[in-house]
Specification:
Rossmann fold, homodimer, seven-stranded antiparallel beta sheet, alpha/beta, seven-stranded mixed beta sheet
């Protein structure tokens, strides 16, 4: 349902990107002003549609007739740019609506970013857009550039790039005008073509996710990029990433606000809630979004994608021209998670055949200074190594020589014969190195002089390949854990009859968990000492006894939990003691009874829980209990729904994961049981979105199976 | 004693760097051969001393008289370069000794790096050097370059640099010829002058540390740099770093082999044991050595040092020209451990005074695109911000404009007026950015386009300043914990009477610990059940009983430990049981008796230990016990001696350090007691170097004091 709406939303963006007619309200012919730059650029770049300048002060602008008001424009208008002061903006937007304009770009600033008064006017823009179905980009934005149709509807990209090595490549969306323009400039300079470039501004109507969705569906976009500070609607964002995955388009985002200081700065920059970076990080993992950490990495990742050779795995070979640089490259590969893999005996034999005696054919391969004296050696070695079936990619480092392209041409030839990426680290005097890098870049051979950026880029792309491979396996993408209708009914009887904000007692919460197939301690809620003794006998000694009251959530604090109760008499005493303590703790507390519970020993303490993120909705956490969570905050987080693979990856990222394999003489525990419970919790909070918080703490995980010992559920 | 020797060793290197006469054995005049390059370069560069080519095949070379053999050279020879095949090398070296040559550089390869046979000849080189006192650089090296005297005694640096911005700056030592040459080239290109550049080769005689020591004492070296794979003698390395610290010279090392794959590659590259990177890492921390992670970082750290403005602390201000780039820079600062500190109210008021209304004066300061329209704004803002007393450094990011140096000149002016570093991130079209970077670099203003390298470089230099400040406080540098003579005597009575390889029982080990003032559990070694009961009564129930035998070190495994013994009768039964179990476990074991020990409860489990590193000698570890050490390997390591500050820093780097402050309702524990014990263990292993291994596990740390519960000492 949501997805269908989202498809429609995306389609409605077409007039923003492919208008056949365009009006500029408040137009001028001064190319240094936002009101003039689009007009001049559209004409110079050869925009194919009709252009209507609108400004009562002129009769012509740039030799085009200029209209006093939008209503005076003779034909229909697909897209309008509004470049008038803030106080006139809403009126002009209304005129757009009256004229039947389909898309509007508002350059004007002075709205939500300046304070509450501006936010109020912005809200009216939003309402007008929603009421009329007219799509609005901005306000407070730099506009839209589309290359195919020379749509220069912005004041940042003023001309079509002269030379494009890879046309129809990157669609870029930026939540910062200035920083976005800087990124545009750097990527353009490398020759990578932009399909579209959008500065989103305050997103009064169209938001970051809708632009992403548009580019996921767009035929001229191969890669989706962006600078992101935050989205308001997580579900839309996920819809857009799913579309990109379906269409096999990588998403490369610079996401600001990883650290609190930056998140604060971003919030003050956009005037919007940016959400928790931990949750974004979870979504990025679940959806294979590539988080780009620097402008240099952006260029390099794009250069590898532009070459159409993504590393399929993490096994890298190194070809160096000195022992020292081979060692240094090996360190970097390890640091960034790539495996400097052993070469096959056959490969080494072939290398030994061409290398001088003092060289080394082990990975890192050291071809030594023989590269200078043995023509073709670099090419021979590269070809031998890249054809090793145990290798996913090659990185080679050599010295640029003034005016000598021998090595470069060798690398171009080798690269053309393989579908695995070969990355060239080129060192040397600045000018020679730059020329070499330009030559390689022009031949679509990935190359740089910075080892760190290069290897990290290869590593993130290897991760991306592994993400896609793992997700292409249906078993991994299994979200199929479904509760039977009876379970939903049972849980619903409890959850649907409670008031908003209600807190379930442990006893109630565990009934819900059991309904969803999660084992809990055996337990009986008792209201008299007699019933308690009877229950204890049935369960078997020793038992635990706990106060059950919706008004007492911190049971231990209230003296409401007694452990290791071993006899009938102790049960009676404990029952009375617990009731007495509860009265003392909160004399108005509604007491439902005393829970008599089996006392488990052994097992590994785990916590599994769920929460709500204001942007992305239900989140799921899992971690090792006790000091792991308290001291190390060692928990893994995902957003619901969590697939089988997601759950397994959660456990893999825990620092204390060694515990699962058994330490201090313990047996390994039942990880599969935990994976299933994580998915069941995910299913439960999806079936009952009114659950704001769920905690199973501890869950005891055994060599076979797992049992929830305590649990808490809080409704919204 | 050691240090005095080291001073002499260093002085003896002078002829390698400042010879007044130089012979080249096996000389040629072909500048493309190692045998010819030095001769040509020495003449071209204007070396002031005498040059004697030696080669029986020639009578003149490069217009200089050429001698058939070294003996034929008329005057004395300070330094000889040997560039003859490996098989003639030893003979020529002997001739150098006969001639009274003081320093020799052997270019020739084919020694330890090619296998055992080569290693044998190399050993003879070492012996000849040691016997004669003649100092040898190499073999298998590229030689030595010194700039002051135009000493081109190498085949890597062939000419004096044309333009040197900062003369007498960097002394560089490289354990890789090729990689070292690459580093040389990149640093030279920035205009930073080398005092000396050494390729160390196989280090048959002079080693990395001696060159470091030489540069620490050298008047023309301000900064010591190097590419390091490993040293053989850790003490010498430490002596050299201490000298550098005394002389206020930063040490910047690229240390290879952080990860196993690279360590393996380095070992095969140098043919030498490279040692544990963890121990190097500890030494770097204790001695303030700056570990450089990339060539780019090398250039940038040098550029900041060259400007003579090192950040004194970690508080950074950001001046950006777009909100987005300010946010992105803030994230990077947080990532690399810098603090984007709040600006003082006065600073913000001054900023608000000059900034446009839509800009932001909070750190990160966003001066917006007003930088383009308000001349002088960048300079004004930078000056206001850098003068904030709560700020240690400033980073600013702006766009390079073709042919327009306005911003650059502003930054030069501001930088000249402050002693705090101002770093310039310059973005823009490649050519404009390069020109801007060159201009700033030529004015000794630190600048780059890569944010990551820039901020990481500022962070490592802030760390270095903090290291020096902390060490300048005498209390922090306190190594004064001394054992009284009686303690040394008591411990000596036990330790000096044991055979090499002996393993002390817990009872013996704890006596040693107590002698050094480390509290242990109260305990009595008993040989009869009667004595055991008596002991238990004195200690107070409950007690622990343990088998004591030098042949049973894994006491628990042998059934030799019983806990929670509460009555006289249980003592008797336990005694007999333990003896019986010990007999079953190892019927030949020498049993010294049964240890009756107080049973402690509560406290936080800690481990403190000592070990031996083949390179650096005694090492000290400390960590949290239990799963922290077993699952997370959460231990801090240092080499002995450990100062008070070192010990405190060890605890600071533990992942689980939150435990010390008290978690789960526990009181904070006595960190000072632990700091003292770490230092006492350090003192103990220094006083008794025969201790190969020492383990206190667990040490129970209480809110007041700490008690060793179990201990182990193994001798070498």
């Amino acid at each position: 349902m949501k997805t269908i709406n989202f498809e429609q939303e995306i389609k409605s963006l077409l007039p923003l990107f492919q208008p056949e007619s365009l009006a500029i309200i408040g137009a001028s012919e001064n190319p240094f002003k936002p009101s003039g730059q689009p007009l001049v650029s559209l004409i110079n770049a050869g925009f194919k549609g009709k252009i209507y300048p609108v400004n009562p002060k002129h009769t012509t602008l740039c030799n085009l007739p200029c209209y006093p008001a939008l209503i005076d424009v003779p034909g229909s208008v697909d897209l309008a740019i509004i470049a008038v002061p803030a106080k006139y903006t809403l009126d002009q937007l209304q005129q757009c609506a009256d004229k039947g304009v389909k898309g509007v770009i508002i350059f004007t600033s002075g709205f939500a970013e300046v304070g509450p008064e501006g936010a109020k006017i912005q809200m009216e823009i939003t309402e007008l857009a929603q009421k009329t179905g007219m799509r609005v980009c901005g306000p407070n934005c730099m506009g839209i550039f589309s290359s195919r149709n020379a749509l220069m509807a912005n004041f940042s990209v003023t001309e079509l790039p002269e030379q494009v090595l890879v046309p129809d490549f990157l669609g870029f969306i930026s939540q910062s005008g200035g920083f976005g323009a800087a990124i545009y400039q750097m990527i353009k300079e490398k020759g990578y073509g932009f399909s579209h470039f959008v500065s989103t501004g305050n997103e009064a109507d169209v938001d970051f996710s809708q632009y992403m969705g548009f580019m996921a569906r767009d035929n001229y976009t191969r890669v989706i990029g962006g600078y992101l500070e935050g989205v308001k609607d997580g579900q839309k964002f996920i819809n857009a990433t799913d579309m990109a995955l379906q269409n096999n388009k990588p998403i490369l985002l610079i996401k600001a606000g990883r650290y609190p200081a930056a998140a604060k700065a971003a919030a003050s920059h956009t005037g919007a809630l940016v959400g928790s970076d931990k949750v974004y990080s979870a979504v990025f993992k679940q959806k294979g979004i590539i988080r780009i950490e620097s402008l240099e990495e952006y260029q390099i990742v794009l250069s590898i994608l532009a070459s159409n050779k993504c590393p399929k795995g993490k096994r890298i070979a190194i070809l160096a021209t000195s022992g020292g640089s081979g060692v240094a490259l090996t360190d970097k590969c390890s640091f960034y998670g790539l495996e400097v893999a052993p070469l096959q005996a056959e490969t080494r034999a072939k290398l030994d055949n061409v290398l001088p005696a003092f060289a080394s054919s082990a990975n890192p391969v050291d071809i030594t200074s023989a590269i200078l004296t043995q023509p073709g050696l670099l090419e021979q070695c590269a070809e031998i190594v890249i054809n090793d079936p145990g290798i996913d990619m090659l990185i080679t480092a050599y010295w640029a020589l003034h005016g000598d392209r021998t090595n470069l041409e060798q690398m171009v030839r080798v690269s053309k014969k393989t579908d695995k990426p070969i990355f060239n680290i080129v060192w040397g005097p600045e000018e020679a190195a730059l020329q070499a890098l330009h030559f390689l870049n022009d031949n679509l051979i990935p190359a740089a002089k910075e080892v760190d950026f290069a290897i990290r880029s290869l590593a993130v792309l290897a991760d991306y390949s592994e993400f896609k491979t793992a997700r292409s396996n249906k078993n991994n993408e299994d979200y199929s854990i479904q509760a039977p209708p009876s379970a939903k009914k049972m849980a619903g009887e409890i959850l649907n009859n409670l008031k908003p904000g209600a807190k379930l007692t442990e006893y109630e919460a565990k009934q819900v968990l059991r309904a969803y197939g999660i084992s809990t301690t055996r337990e009986v809620l008792t209201k008299t000492t007699e019933k308690a003794v009877q229950a204890a006998k049935e369960i078997g000694y020793p038992v635990v006894m706990k106060i059950m009251s919706p008004d007492i959530l911190h049971k231990t604090e209230a003296g409401g939990v007694l452990l290791n109760i071993a006899t009938d008499q102790e049960v009676v005493e404990s029952f009375n003691k617990i009731i007495e303590n509860a009265r003392k703790y909160n004399q108005d507390a509604l007491v439902q009874g005393v829970l008599v519970q089996e006392m488990l020993s052994g097992g590994t303490e785990i916590i599994v829980g769920a929460g709500k993120d204001p942007v992305f909705g239900s989140t799921i956490i899992a971690g090792l209990g006790g000091i792991f969570v308290e001291v190390l905050e060692d928990v893994a987080l995902r957003v619901a729904p969590v697939s089988n693979l997601d759950a397994r990856e959660m456990l893999e990222e825990l620092k204390g994961k060694k515990i699962f394999e058994g330490v201090r003489g313990k047996e390994p525990v039942d990880k599969n049981a935990l994976v299933e419970i994580i998915q069941k919790v995910s299913r439960l909070v999806e079936d009952f979105p009114q659950i704001a918080e769920l905690d199973i703490n501890p869950l005891l995980l055994f060599p076979k199976g797992a049992v929830a010992v305590d649990a808490l559920i809080v409704l919204q």
